[in-house]
Amino acid sequence: MVYLGLPLGANMRLAKSWDPVIQKFHSRLHSWKGRFLSFAGRLELLKSVLSSLPLFYLSMFTIPVLVAKKLVRIQRTCLWGGTTITKKLCLIAWAKIAKPKEHGGLGVENLLLKNQSLLFKWL
């Protein structure tokens, strides 16, 4: 049963409970795959669209590390222009991309840190 987009009674510590979020990532990317986006366009898509998709889940539940790794893998693949089948060469380390712009990075948000910050509002 789903209420306000969140599953009721599901064990959110299990990775399979996060499948709707992963499917949203894939479906949102699928709609953009047909367009030819530059690196800057893919970066903006990553920062604006993909970073905001799991916010509601992240504000309510602790994300499992396995799910966070899957979502980061999807983000990396999107940024470098690859697909789930083909891989592209990563030109910049993800740790540098995930740094804030003030520290020399590209400003992509770290999902685990974002999850922790959103959960602190419940304290």
Short précis:
This protein is mainly alpha-helical and 123 residues long.
What does this molecule look like?
48% of the residues lie in helices and 3% in strands. It is mainly alpha-helical and 123 residues long. The chain has one domain. A two-stranded antiparallel ribbon has the order 1-2. The protein is globular, with a radius of gyration of 15 Å. 14% of the residues are buried.
Search tags:
123 residues, mainly alpha, two-stranded antiparallel sheet, globular, Reverse transcriptase zinc-binding domain-containing protein, transmembrane
Helix content: 40-55%
- What's the average pLDDT? 84
Q: Which sequence of strands runs across the widest sheet?
A: 1-2
How many domain regions? 1
Given the structure, what is the number of helices? 6
Low-confidence stretches: none
What is the string of SSEs from the N terminus onward? EEHHHHHH
Query: What is the β-strand count?
Result: 2
Looking at how many chains there are and whether they match, the oligomeric state comes to single chain
Shape designation: globular
Distance between the termini: 27 Å
Structural category is mainly alpha
β-strand percent reads under 5%
Radius of gyration from the alpha-carbon trace, in angstroms: 15 Å
Largest sheet: 2 strands, antiparallel
